[in-house]
């Protein structure tokens, strides 16, 4: 492994990309410690210590939200905007046309996504400023606007940083920013474990069990992330003039986790909405509903799992166009052995995708409720492991390693993924 890492630094271009990415990470981490003007950070910290409502959001921001820094909203508005645009592509003809125009269409879609990011970021910043008005030193419209503009500017800057990493660094910049925020929480979690051990709240066996479960889940996530059903494809041989075309075999890879972490994000957003509203509205029945939907309750856990399964099917159906796959196969002379082209091929692909999506949906639901199970088995509270964070970290790490590996192998060096 050490010799493989040395191979990376033998390539000047790759070395520059890695250094540039690390510099961007440093800028991101420095920004998480720059506070928003006009806010009392002690009140914000007290709010986060009183419950884990915003714990997941704080994890993605690398602790910036609990500090209420300029990067408090992280890159979340951009992710929301990208998901909205992707879903609207199915219903808006113009966006669908852009998706088929290659690089030029991608540029237009990116511009629309950027504009929507600014709008969503400003609205979210206004909502956060009003919701956390007790922490504002001089509550009023001017202060709220200044805070909202500052938070929006922080998100836009992070969006720019992510795009720069994608263009000049290694890997997908937006994903790597979230990755960096999650990994940055590791030292804090280790410190909590040490404090629990010193206080006698947990013992060595609890630590061993926690580490064992963590390693086992990382291995499982890697296996499922890499898992795919390969549908064999054959192409008929065609003779045009003196040349022969086709006659080869290929496959269509269908991933088990086709929807990625999106179903977990959708499900958590739906369940967090009433709980978030209850934090700022003093109405008895709202508080009662929020109590039933509090994190970790039996009702919340059951609804969480069911919503994840539903959104897994929904998002897969929206993003994976089986009819287009079958049509393209027929157009280019491809067919699945034993299946007739056209409608029979479409039905077969839909049947296979439905079955593997069910396995992926159950896996995502299991990963999402994993933190509750770990806390119950190890008696370790407040150390977040599993769910969306685990999927993102493993997924981003695998994709980045593949990109680095391809660049290393292209220059005839031995890679590190054997």
Automatic annotation (TrEMBL):
Gene3D superfamilies: SecY subunit domain
Keywords: Cell membrane, Membrane, Protein transport, Translocation, Transmembrane, Transmembrane helix, Transport
Transmembrane portions of the chain: 68-92, 112-132, 144-162, 169-187, 207-224, 259-281, 301-322, 352-370, 382-401
Main subcellular location of this protein, as a coarse class: membrane
Any one GO BP annotation for this protein: protein transport by the Sec complex
Bilayer topology: Multi-pass membrane protein
One cellular-component annotation, GO: plasma membrane
Subcellular location: Cell membrane; Membrane
Any single Pfam family the record assigns to this protein: SecY
InterPro entries: SecY, SecY/SEC61-alpha, SecY_CS, SecY_dom_sf
Known function: The central subunit of the protein translocation channel SecYEG. Consists of two halves formed by TMs 1-5 and 6-10. These two domains form a lateral gate at the front which open onto the bilayer between TMs 2 and 7, and are clamped together by SecE at the back. The channel is closed by both a pore ring composed of hydrophobic SecY resides and a short helix (helix 2A) on the extracellular side of the membrane which forms a plug. The plug probably moves laterally to allow the channel to open. The ring and the pore may move independently.
Family: Belongs to the SecY/SEC61-alpha family.
Subunit record text: Component of the Sec protein translocase complex. Heterotrimer consisting of SecY, SecE and SecG subunits. The heterotrimers can form oligomers, although 1 heterotrimer is thought to be able to translocate proteins. Interacts with the ribosome. Interacts with SecDF, and other proteins may be involved. Interacts with SecA.
Name of this chain's protein: Protein translocase subunit SecY
Organism in which the protein naturally occurs: Schwartzia succinivorans DSM 10502
Gene: secY
């Amino acid at each position: 492994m050490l010799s493989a890492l040395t191979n990376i630094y033998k390539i000047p271009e790759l070395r520059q990309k890695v250094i540039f990415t690390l510099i961007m990470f440093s800028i991101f981490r420095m920004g998480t410690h720059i506070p928003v003007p006009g806010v009392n950070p002690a009140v914000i910290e007290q709010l986060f210590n009183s419950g884990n409502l915003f714990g997941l959001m704080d994890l993605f921001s690398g602790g910036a939200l609990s500090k209420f820094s300029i990067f408090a909203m992280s890159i979340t508005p951009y992710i929301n905007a990208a998901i909205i645009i992707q879903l609207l592509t199915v219903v808006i003809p113009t966006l669908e046309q852009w998706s088929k125009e290659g690089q030029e269409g991608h540029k237009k879609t990116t511009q629309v996504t950027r504009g929507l990011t600014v709008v969503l970021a400003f609205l979210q910043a206004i909502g956060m400023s009003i919701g956390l008005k007790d922490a504002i030193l001089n509550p009023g419209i001017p202060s709220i606007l200044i805070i909202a503009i500052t938070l929006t500017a922080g998100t836009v800057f992070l969006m720019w940083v992510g795009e720069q990493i994608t263009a000049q660094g290694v890997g997908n910049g937006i994903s790597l920013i979230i990755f960096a925020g999650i990994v940055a929480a590791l030292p804090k979690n280790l410190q909590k474990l040490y404090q629990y051990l010193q206080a006698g709240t947990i013992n060595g066996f609890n630590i061993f069990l926690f580490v064992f479960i963590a390693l086992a889940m990382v291995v499982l996530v890697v296996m499922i992330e890499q898992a795919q059903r390969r549908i064999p494809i054959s192409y008929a041989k065609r003779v045009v003039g003196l040349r022969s075309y086709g006659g080869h075999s290929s496959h269509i890879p269908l991933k088990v986790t086709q929807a990625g972490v999106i179903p977990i994000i959708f499900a958590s957003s739906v369940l967090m909405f009433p709980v978030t509203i209850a934090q700022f509205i003093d109405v008895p029945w709202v508080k009662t509903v929020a109590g039933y939907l509090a994190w970790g309750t039996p009702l919340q856990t059951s609804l969480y799992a069911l919503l994840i399964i539903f959104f897994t099917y929904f998002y897969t159906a929206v993003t994976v166009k089986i009819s287009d796959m079958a049509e393209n196969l027929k157009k280019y002379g491809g067919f699945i052995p034993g299946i007739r082209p056209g409608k029979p091929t479409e039905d077969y692909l839909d049947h296979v995708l439905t079955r593997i999506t069910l396995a992926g949906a159950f896996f995502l639901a299991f990963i999402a409720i994993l933190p509750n199970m770990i806390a119950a088995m190890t008696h370790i509270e407040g150390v977040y492991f599993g769910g969306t964070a685990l999927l993102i970290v493993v997924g981003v790490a695998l994709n980045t390693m593949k990109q680095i590996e391809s660049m290393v192998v292209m220059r005839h060096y031995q890679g590190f993924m054997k």
